[in-house]
Design goal:
This protein is of the alpha+beta class and 152 residues long. The protein has one domain: Nucleoside Triphosphate Pyrophosphohydrolase (Alpha-Beta Complex), CATH 3.90.79. The chain has two helices and nine strands, in the order ββββαβββαββ. Strands 1, 2, 3, 4, 5, 6, 7, 8 and 9 form a nine-stranded mixed β-sheet that branches.
């Protein structure tokens, strides 16, 4: 199982999400993150990914690791992944659109869950509240439906 990172960014009472324009998760709103390169540590990977995908400057000391989720895909075992999830409340700059991501701020009561991964509504409230958690989510097919979900 590969390890990936994901950060959910906030500015005041708004959440910053980005529409994935290519690759895994294309067409879905998500946070910023991705794969570790070589022997890179997760904290180094998430700082790099945020900067590459958004143009934002991040202080690694302000990233709060909240937990992880193990994602399993019944029809695509090569997609199985452990995602380490961070919350970030302060960053420098304005997010820019890149080849991979198109950013948008949302009010917390207007999060576009219908255009996100089906399980995001299960774990994202923990991030919004700043609560530590872990989870295991099994998708049927290639992620269209949740087969099982446990978040603690």
């Amino acid at each position: 199982m590969k390890t990936l990172t994901l950060a959910i960014l906030f500015r005041g009472d708004k959440i910053l999400l980005a529409m994935k324009k290519r690759g895994f998760g294309v067409g879905k709103w998500n946070g910023y993150g991705g794969k570790l390169e070589g022997v890179e540590k997760p904290i180094d990977a998430i700082v790099r990914e945020i900067e590459e995908e958004s143009g934002l400057v991040v202080d690694r000391n302000l990233l709060k690791e909240l937990g992880f989720i193990d994602f399993y895909f019944d029809d695509k075992k090569e997609w199985d992944q452990r995602v380490i999830i961070y919350r970030l409340n302060k960053f420098t700059g304005e997010p820019i659109e890149t080849e991979e991501m198109a950013p948008e701020f949302f009010d917390l009561d207007k999060i576009p869950y219908n255009d996100m991964w089906p399980a995001d509504s299960k774990w994202l409230p923990y991030v919004i509240s700043g609560i530590k958690f872990s989870g295991e989510i099994h998708f049927s097919g290639t992620g269209e439906r949740i087969f099982s979900c446990v978040i603690e």
